[in-house]
Amino acid sequence: MSYAVKEIFLTLQGEGAQAGRRAVFLRFSGCNLWSGREQDRADAACTFCDTDFVGMDGEGGGRFRDASALADAAARTWGEGEGPLIVITGGEPLLQLDSALIEALHTRGFAIAVESNGTLPAPQGIDWLCVSPKAGTQIVQRSGDELKLVWPQAGINPAELADWDFRHHLIQPRDEVDRAAALQAAIAFVMANPRWRLSLQTHKLLGLP
Fold first, then answer.
1. Are 134 and 157 in contact (CB under 8 A)?
2. Tens of pLDDT along 179-209?
3. Is the pTM of this model over 0.85?
4. Which residues are tagged catalytic?
5. What are the phi and psi torsion angles at 33 (to 5°)?
6. Going edge to edge, which strands form the sheet with 128-131?
7. Which CATH number does 3-206 carry?
8. CA–CA distance, 33 with 137 (Å, rounded to integer)
9. Where in the chain are the domains?
10. How many CB atoms lie under 10 A from the CB of residue 151?
């Protein structure tokens, strides 16, 4: 199959339990919870996305004819250095990520991390899976490495996630107009629920993509 890619770039992982690691970011185009068009946001299943995943016009983006071509582009982006990590995100990456691409990336030495909304089952072979559930959606992927809950988020009860099988439980403030209030709400949540840890978008604080 071919792949529609918004962008591929080298940066530091800015969020979650692996924050600070050098990584290639592969952002797929498209999502199943929002079209990406502002006129559709109010009626979308996810109304607070802060990412542009529409089209294929970003750095390194385009239509890749097969898994080998896309994995080669990721390897060129990584360049030199041990322990290559690729973070596959979107939009919703599980609309496109398949076994052929997983195999091609592993062949080139990559550890594969994926950031998903959890509404689609994850294929085998992913090395690190982060699920960020959205209120009102049907979450089918209830296991992985990292559960990242954007907060505050009306309509979702963290207590109902207690029996999901994740090693890390993270609360991340919503990136919205009232960022200070969202941060304070997230801090208050973690102070009251010590199983959870605070996750910040450090790449934005550092001015990284």
1. no
2. 899 999 999 999 999 999 999 999 888 888 8
3. yes
4. 25, 31, 46, 49-51, 115, 203
5. -115, -10
6. 62-64, 3-12, 22-28, 85-89, 111-116, 128-131, 143-151, 165-173, 197-198
7. 3.20.20.70
8. 9
9. 3-206
10. 23
